[in-house]
Design goal:
Length: about 200
């Protein structure tokens, strides 16, 4: 009987050892799961950070204008600048305004174009008016990247076509040849855009 009892005892000890080993494996699995969860959390934070950085821009015409896109690409996304984009395409200035620049663009809204005398926009978009359209559009472009903080009252800006624009500061807002800057400092990869409420017309 004593011998049987001893054998049984060994069996119980073996079962206990297996149980302890099993518990150790469970603990290891738990630690691994915890580490995986930690990694997932860190990756989640990184993704959130990237999303935040990507959205670091200015909302114009229902779309986010971001610094990683060029001036034309940002403008195309704006529902308020479809007329301006059509004009830029008609004047074959897309490649120019997608170039390295940098440029400062005073971008009239659709409402600004609609405020022109009836037939003006349609007339400018005709192939035979390309030179005139180009002159109007380049009157809105200044070399360099000028932010609102760089504009001073009475300042004269020289456009890429050599024309002059006058800056007026009034009630905390900048005006360019009488057109009010409604949204300032829309930064793109190749310059800065300021949304204005009037079309700037050079002397023809």
């Amino acid at each position: 009987m004593k011998k049987v009892f001893t054998t049984a005892s060994f069996a119980l000890l073996a079962v206990a050892a297996l149980s302890l080993s099993s518990c150790g494996d469970t603990a290891t699995t738990t630690e691994t799961t915890t580490d995986t969860a930690t990694t997932t959390t860190v990756e989640g934070d990184t993704t959130a950070m990237d999303a935040s950085t990507a959205s670091n821009g200015v909302m114009v015409g229902g779309a986010m204008m971001t610094p990683d896109k060029d001036i034309v690409t940002n403008a195309i996304a704006s529902a308020d600048h479809t007329t301006l984009v059509a004009a830029v395409k008609a004047a074959d200035l897309v490649a120019t305004l997608q170039g390295p620049g940098p440029f400062t663009v005073f971008a009239p809204t659709n409402a600004a174009f609609n405020a022109l005398p009836a037939g003006t926009v349609d007339g400018l978009l005709k192939p035979e008016s390309k030179d005139k359209l180009t002159k109007v559009l380049t009157f809105h472009v200044v070399p360099g990247a000028l932010k609102a903080a760089d504009l001073t009252d009475g300042q004269e800006l020289t456009t890429v076509a050599g024309e002059k624009l006058k800056v007026t500061l009034k009630d905390g807002k900048a005006m360019i040849n009488g057109a009010t800057v409604e949204i300032a400092d829309v930064v793109s990869s190749n310059g800065v855009t300021h949304v204005v409420n009037q079309v700037l017309l050079p002397k023809m």
